[in-house]
């Protein structure tokens, strides 16, 4: 056992000492990182953090509001603002525009159909098994399914006992009605 510990320590010691080439590569990477960091305006870090916290918390004062992609300062523009802080991204300008336009279309769809990104992100409150006044509701997103049903001991594993209905977004749902005994 003692021999194993010594060899483990020796390996750790050998790994901890970088080679001269690794040290030079690290220094060069740090210098390049510093150049990119220096190119950003000093207030960029503080502003980005403040904006990010405001959006995560539903507004500066915690006032969650539904805003359209055009009104929300975090999702306005054409998606190329990041290029201002990193000139190496200039060659990808059109790709940023395309992806950002796609993102904005989805935010609009989510706002119109789901009540906003905040509500949409709380799918766990809607999906899965939930006890309701009518019975137990089961909801699952399975857009590629052609049919679905809920089966188990409660219905004798009968596939036709609790068929699920699909909505236009691929969400399947069924309700297993309460029984007289409440089971």
The spatial strand order of the largest sheet comes to 1-2-4-3
Strand segment count: 4
* Shape annotation: elongated
Order of helices and strands: HHHHHEEEE
Radius of gyration: 27 Å
Range of strand content:
5-15%
Runs in which pLDDT lies below 50 for 5 or more consecutive residues are 1-16, 33-64
Quaternary structure annotation: single chain
Q: What is the residue-mean pLDDT, rounded to a whole number?
A: 73
Structural class: alpha+beta
Describe the structure.
With 183 residues, the chain is of the alpha+beta class. Helix content is 41%, strand content 11%. The protein is built from 5 helices and 4 strands. It has a 4-stranded antiparallel sheet, with no helix packed on it. A hairpin with a 4-residue loop joins β3 and β4 (171-177).
List its traits.
4 strands; 4-stranded antiparallel beta sheet; 183 residues; alpha+beta
Could you give a short description of this structure?
The protein is an alpha+beta fold and 183 residues long.
Topology, please?
Elements: H1 2-16, H2 20-39, H3 43-56, H4 93-114, H5 117-120, E1 128-131, E2 135-141, E3 165-166, E4 171-177
Antiparallel strand pairs: 1-2, 2-4, 3-4
